[in-house]
């Protein structure tokens, strides 16, 4: 018999295991979003921008974040940048718990841990400062000396191939040059994470390629983790991991393998649906619509996969519904031991649809000559 104390011990152990599983999620990752929720309220209407989103990004990754307008990707990046706070859930970046930060801590986080690049070139640089001065400003606010500031600014401008812009103000630079200088500004204080929200959205294809090349340089030369929000398929095709957000959750991930071609496009790509810790996944809309899947589906466990079948309102195998791969439709019971089966009956004599074979008309009692019949 189990005592009340034993019940309490089991419950405590289960609770401790749940806490450990929560704490272990994303262990070793640089960015960890755990069941992240963000709800906005406008004129009495609640909008759920993030609905329990889960995400991990390792140190040194170069990752693209894609999704339709309103999917929640910009909300996510603003939270990671310390510009917004989550409604529920937790988010950690480089060991910093963003949900628990004070305003002062958040300011220090933005100065030293994360760099941010806006889509609009005019938001990244102060118009009355030169490129070198824009880079030196965050260093000055962090207390760096004049010599250290000048050395760091010169190194960044040189690595990102905009050293010729050192003495130019933003209105004297092209759009691509402005964005590459903006990357240098974001890297000034050696952040752990570089966030870019549509950095190539206002640029032509050739200029966009040069800006993305600068992001790749930042990743490879400085080891900074880069997360890029983009609608540009050319950008997402040049990263090894692309995360798609839909309806406020991570929906799919595309992983690319192999070496890139002359244009930097990586080779073989495989798309995966994201399975969260609650066992939920989002099936692609084009797949569910083509198969008439809605409201509920039937699952079949197979040795090496799980089958998903649309609900037709009928039992499996009835009305022509596919019972699943490798499964035969249900049929009536076989004759019990001791019963006398009909002549010619055997378990293998069923027709493909599971019904008993129809007797040959020429031998049917209904068509055989009866006594008294005349021809």
What this model shows, in words?
By secondary structure, the protein is an alpha/beta fold. It has 2 domains: 246 residues, P-loop containing nucleotide triphosphate hydrolases (Rossmann fold, 3-Layer(aba) Sandwich); 35 residues, no CATH class. It has 9 helices and 13 strands. The strands form 3 sheets. A 7-stranded mixed sheet has the order 6-7-8-3-9-10-11, with helices on both faces. A hairpin with a 2-residue loop joins strand 4 and strand 5. Helix 4 packs across helix 5, helix 4 runs parallel beside helix 6 and helix 6 runs parallel beside helix 7. The longest helix is centred in the N-terminal third of the chain and has 21 residues. It is elongated, with a radius of gyration of 32 Å. 29% of the residues are buried.
Instruction: Give a count of the beta strands, DSSP E runs of length 2 or more.
Output: 13
Q: According to CATH, what is the topology of the largest domain?
A: Rossmann fold
As for the number of domains, it is 2
Largest sheet: 7 strands, mixed
Instruction: Give the amount of beta strand, in percent.
Output: 15-25%
Q: What is the top-level CATH class of the largest domain?
A: Alpha Beta
Biggest sheet, spatial arrangement of strands = 6-7-8-3-9-10-11
Specify the structural class. Answer: alpha/beta
CATH superfamily of the largest domain: P-loop containing nucleotide triphosphate hydrolases
The CATH level-2 architecture of the largest domain is identified as: 3-Layer(aba) Sandwich
Low-confidence stretches: 14-19, 340-347, 359-375
Rg from Cα: 32 Å
Overall shape: it is elongated
Beginning-to-end CA distance, first to last residue: 83 Å
> Can you write the helix and strand succession as a string?
HEEEHEEHEHHHEHEHEEEHEE
Report the average pLDDT across residues.
82
């Amino acid at each position: 018999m189990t005592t009340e104390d034993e019940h309490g011990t089991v419950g405590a152990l289960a609770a401790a295991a749940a806490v450990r599983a929560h704490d272990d999620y994303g262990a070793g990752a640089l960015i960890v979003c755990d069941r992240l929720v963000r709800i906005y309220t406008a004129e009495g209407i609640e909008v759920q921008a993030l609905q329990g989103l889960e995400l991990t990004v390792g140190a040194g990754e170069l990752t693209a974040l894609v999704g339709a307008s309103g999917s929640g990707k910009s909300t996510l990046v603003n939270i990671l940048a310390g510009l917004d706070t989550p409604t529920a859930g937790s988010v950690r970046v480089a060991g910093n718990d963003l949900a628990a930060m004070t305003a002062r801590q958040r300011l220090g986080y933005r100065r030293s841990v994360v760099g941010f690049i806006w889509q609009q070139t005019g938001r990244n640089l102060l118009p009355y400062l030169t490129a070198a001065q824009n880079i030196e400003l965050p260093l000055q606010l962090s207390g760096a000396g004049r010599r250290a500031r000048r050395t760091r600014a010169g190194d960044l401008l040189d690595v990102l191939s905009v050293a010729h812009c050192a003495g130019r103000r933003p209105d004297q630079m092209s759009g691509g040059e402005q964005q590459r200088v903006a990357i240098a500004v974001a890297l000034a204080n050696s952040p752990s994470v570089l966030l870019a929200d549509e950095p190539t959205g206002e640029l032509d294809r050739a200029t966009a390629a040069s800006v993305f090349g600068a992001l790749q340089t930042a990743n490879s030369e400085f080891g900074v983790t880069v997360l890029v929000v983009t609608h540009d398929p050319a950008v997402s095709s040049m990263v090894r991991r692309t995360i798609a957000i839909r309806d406020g959750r991570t929906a799919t991930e595309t992983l690319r393998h192999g070496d890139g071609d002359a244009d930097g496009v990586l080779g073989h790509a495989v798309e995966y649906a994201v399975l969260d810790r609650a066992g939920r996944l989002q099936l692609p809309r084009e797949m569910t619509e083509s198969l008439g899947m809605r409201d509920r589906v039937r699952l079949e466990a197979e040795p090496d996969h799980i089958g998903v079948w649309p609900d037709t309102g009928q039992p499996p195998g009835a009305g022509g519904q596919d019972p699943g791969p490798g499964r035969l439709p249900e049929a009536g019971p076989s004759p019990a031991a001791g019963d006398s089966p009909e002549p010619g009956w055997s378990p293998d004599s069923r027709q493909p649809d599971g019904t008993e074979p129809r007797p040959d008309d020429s031998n049917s009692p209904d068509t055989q000559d009866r006594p008294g019949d005349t021809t």
